[in-house]
Write a structure and sequence with these properties.
Elements lengths: L6 E2 L2 E2 L8 H12 L3 H10 L1 H8 L9 H18 L8 H19 L7 H21 L5 H8 L3 H10 L9 E3 L6 E2 L10 H16 L3 H12 L4 H8 L3 H18 L1
Antiparallel strand pairs: 1-2, 3-4
Helix pairs in contact: 1-2, 3-4, 3-5, 4-5, 6-7, 6-8, 7-8, 9-12, 10-12, 11-12
């Protein structure tokens, strides 16, 4: 099933509800007290978040229904482990949990063989990472993970690198009603510092010509790594409006580059 179809795993994506932050807090309190109806409502209200995340993996050749179900498992784990006492938005906590669950699924189905010892170190490192994120509400460094495991930093780095999914040079990284940009298009000679310097100046000048809202959306999306749904919730507009602003901003920048 393709990502742009309306129905995924029997779920009509056009009818999925969106929960406001205030409602999320109320539902989470009910969930912690054992309210199963609140739990179901909360899960359904966050399925759009799962959909936005699995789009990042739709070029892997995996069945989109499978990815959606795995993403939902990550969502449920995030609900079960979310700590209301921490000053963190649920989506901020849930996104890495959902992505982690999908990546684990893709690793387990990876045709490239990795030694059992490296896999064991990598999986322990990922478990430590999730625990540190949950306890500290921030991403730990590889050094912090290595110290928790009492292993050399080099061993942890090698193990995590070994289970990374291979990337094709022909994987598209961006496409907007025109020619796609592939990974190979972004491979360049790092020695050409003059060109990099000129490109950076050109990019900054193009950004300056955008209006305030366009600059805000691009900053949240591409510099702070927010999803369109998170951006929409933060600045008080719909996800569709965020998508339009993002496309218009990129189109306007192309005119000046």
């Amino acid at each position: 099933m393709q990502i742009n179809k309306v129905e995924i795993c029997g779920v009509n994506t056009s009818e999925l509800p969106v929960i406001k932050n205030s409602e999320m807090t109320e539902l989470l309190l009910k969930i912690k007290s054992g309210d199963e109806d609140a739990r179901q409502q909360f899960v359904r209200g966050n399925l759009r978040l799962v959909l936005s995340i699995i789009q990042k993996f739709n070029n892997r050749g995996e069945n989109i229904d499978d990815l959606f179900q795995i993403g939902c498992i990550g969502l449920i784990k995030a609900i079960d482990n979310f700590d209301l006492s921490q000053n963190v938005r649920f989506s901020t906590y849930a996104v890495p949990m959902i992505i982690g669950e999908i990546r684990r699924y893709l690793r387990d189905n990876n045709p490239i063989r990795v030694s059992r010892s490296l896999k064991d170190i990598a999986y322990k490192a990922l478990q430590v990472r999730e625990r540190l994120v949950r306890n500290n509400s921030k991403e730990p460094t590889v050094g912090e993970i290595a110290r928790e495991l009492e292993l050399p930093l080099e061993d942890v780095v090698m193990a995590l690198d070994a289970i990374q999914d291979p990337v094709s040079l022909f994987d598209p990284v961006y496409q907007d009603n025109g020619d796609a940009i592939f990974v190979m298009d972004q491979v360049q000679d790092k020695k050409d510092t003059d060109e990099n310097w000129l490109q950076e100046i050109t990019l900054k000048e193009a950004i300056k010509k955008l209006n305030a809202r366009e600059r805000l959306v691009l900053d949240l999306r591409f510099y702070k790594g927010r999803t369109q749904i998170e951006v929409a919730d933060e600045i008080g507009i719909s996800q569709a409006q965020v998508s339009r602003i993002e496309k218009n901003a990129l189109k306007n920048m192309k005119k000046h580059i």
